[in-house]
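Morning run. Coffee first, then this:
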Amino acid sequence: MKKIKIMAMLLLGLGLFTACETDRDDNPVLRTPDGFELYAPAMSGVTIDLENSNVIELKAASRPDYGAPVQVTMGAQIALVENASEGEIHQLEPTTTDITYQVTAAEINKAILEMKNIENEADFVAEEMPLWIRMTAQLADDVEGENRVYSNWQKLTVLPYFVPMVDEEPIYWWLIGACIGDGSWNNSKDESGKWACFPIPLMKEYEYAADGTGHIAATVYLYDGAGFKIIQTLGDWNVQVGMTGGEFAYNDGGSGNIEATDGPGFYRLEFDTKEEKVVSFEKLEVSSSAYSTVSVIGLNDDWETDIDMIPAAGAGENNHMWTTVISVDQTTQFKMRANHDWGTNWGYGSEDGELNAYGFATNGGKNIGIEAGKWAIYLDDITGFYRVVAVQ
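And here it is:
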């Protein structure tokens, strides 16, 4: 009996030993580290003139230990006061997987102006000031930074400069294909100067980042055999999105077209210009257009003559994308209207003649101002989004 008990104890001990070994070697447990060390930046002993500096380099002693081989992205935070509270800290985006993080002097300067709420040069005083900076780390898929960890703070002395706080225009990507524009797939201008492409519209009531990035979305009618691709820059195929094997393919010139995945119909594509990826692509129930024509009217104070816009190729009564090219010799106004009638007309702005290159036009809205030049005008009649682009 004693011999059996001894053998059982030996087997139990061996099992515990094996389990511990498994946890250490074969099945590592993911954990959130307490923090990590940031070395003092090389420029910490001098005043950094932000206007005449390029980058400030931060370097961690090592990558935070998460207890498992995971991808970690590194970023940075700055504060204007020591021992800052959460609301007094500005997060710089995680952009590297390396323990060395380079932040531009211009990015830090812009953050300082934002944190001080300085919008006018009259409110700005150019003087040396302390700045606290630290590195951050988070798992690559932790987009919101819910489990972000931090290094120690390091103190810098900086000299900021004033620059107008002007947000960038939202970034557009373009649709091109058999069901877009004239359907030619021609990624170059036609004789009128128009491209056979259509800008992916902005999203209504969506707040875009100061650098213009964010989500954009288009509703496209796909008939049998129709397909399209997404390109970043007109005239350039280098950055594109297609589809291969049912998955979106990026920057692959040999990829297939984006086509209907659930039979002909309307599909909504949402794209993130910051991450440069498709967020969603799904079939929708959308009514066919009630408009046989959409036109531009009012140029040079002529409110009688319609300039018909061109529908997307092959869409027929299912078209919701319209485009045309106009030339004007002086600043003027225009609206867009359906079926050569004022029952449905699109305008935009707070007052007639206000210059707006893009927006969500509404029925009966204000006349849209436009300066002398040659312009391509695009309208998505589902959302009312329009865009005016200079034609070179």
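Confidence is low (pLDDT under 50) at residues 1-24. Good start to the day.
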